[in-house]
Amino acid sequence: MEIESIRSKEELISFIDKLKNDLVTNNTEWENLSLEDYLEAIKGWIEDTLPSNPNWSTIAEILIAGKYYE
Predict the structure, then answer these.
(1) Which residues, 6 or more positions from 33, have their beta carbon under 8 angstroms from its beta carbon?
(2) How many domains does the chain have?
(3) Which residue range(s) make up the domain with 24?
(4) Cys-Cys crosslink for 65: which of 37, 45, 46, 50, Cβ 3.0 to 4.6 Å?
(5) Closest of 69, 65, 68, 55 to residue 11, by C-alpha
């Protein structure tokens, strides 16, 4: 999934749809399958990684981080 090119709200919405579909079709690739684990991973990624000036693609990075971040 290409996240660096996300520049608008509409592109972010499309990315979220793709992310949801990826969970359904490729759930064996996801570290965090429960909502609790996914949100905890997002929180950890934000604490460790979030830049001081986020943009649309940064929001997408946050959402994809929940898939893998521990």
Answers:
(1) 23, 27
(2) 1
(3) 9-68
(4) 45
(5) 55
Closest CA to 7 of 49, 43, 15: 15
Distance CA 62, CA 44 (A): 10
pTM of the predicted protein model: 0.75
Q: Tell me whether residue 1 is in a domain.
A: no
Residue where the block lists tokens 């000036």: 53
**Predicted confidence (pLDDT) per residue in 11-45, tens digit:** 989 999 999 999 999 999 999 999 999 999 989 98
Structural domain includes residue 4? no
pLDDT at 70 over 90: no
Cβ atoms of 27 and 33 closer than 8 Å: yes
Within a domain: 3: no
Q: Residue 47 CA to chain centroid, in angstroms?
A: 14
